[in-house]
Amino acid sequence: MSNLEKINQFTRRELSEEELYLFDVILCNNDIDRDCECFSEHALEQMQPLFIGKTGIFDHNPKSAGQTARIYDTELVKSSDSKTKDGRPLISLKGHAYMLRTDSNADFIREIDAGIKKEVSVACSAVKHTCSVCGADNCQHVPGRYYGQQLCFTILDDVQDAYEWSFVAVPAQPAAGVTKHFAVSGFTSPDVSLQTLLSELEQQTRAEVLALCRNQSQQPVSKALCFAAEKMNLFELVQFKKSLLEQEHSLADAAVQLADFRQR
After folding, report:
1. What pTM did the predictor assign?
2. What is the span of the domain harbouring residue 136?
3. For residue 139, what is the domain's CATH number?
4. One domain for residues 171 and 257
5. How far, in Å, are 44, 78, 169 from residue 83 at the CA level?
6. pLDDT tens digits, residue range 39-51?
7. Residue 151: beta bridge partners?
8. Integer-rounded Cα radius of gyration of the chain
């Protein structure tokens, strides 16, 4: 079945390619998010059919006036090189969305193309919430804290329903958002290597920052810094890394000066 045929299953009349604007969006993935939660692979499989036909709105506002797009197909995408924060293969739920080309949404389409309207968040119902450390659904472990070398986070599973997906300013999952758009002619799409590179850069920078945080002499300070770093986006990580390196260099210079003073 073609994309146009899939779309016309949701319309009252058959639409033409010229009337439509199509784009892809990463709805969610199995990585640990800013709230120290992640979807299990099984949960992503459950959501794949549930999000077909679901509407896209703004800031999870349920008013019908905010409806702007609709998912007509979904797929699970397993990355061959990207990993989750705890080292698992990164798996993303990708939605294929459509919207009408109208005078009223022309600016919105341009904002999507420019990468301004990009980040998204999903609303769904997950019944099962288990601890990554012990596997229990009600325990004393605190999400975001390290127990030994293991980060505690909540695993979401047994998804009962998917409600909607929204354009938001700050998504819980940093990687969720518009990845590319379809050209009208032939429904083809450009390469998405830039998104992959940015994702890899964020993971690499986060790993470097966490290593710097763990080098802190006081364990409570080290844990607090690691917790903060887990919730940062790429820009914040770069700035934080710069600050940590400057602090490290300052301490090294102070140690050298003290050694010189003692030798005199």
Report:
1. 0.65
2. 3-190
3. 3.20.16
4. no
5. 16, 10, 24
6. 999 999 999 999 9
7. 146
8. 22
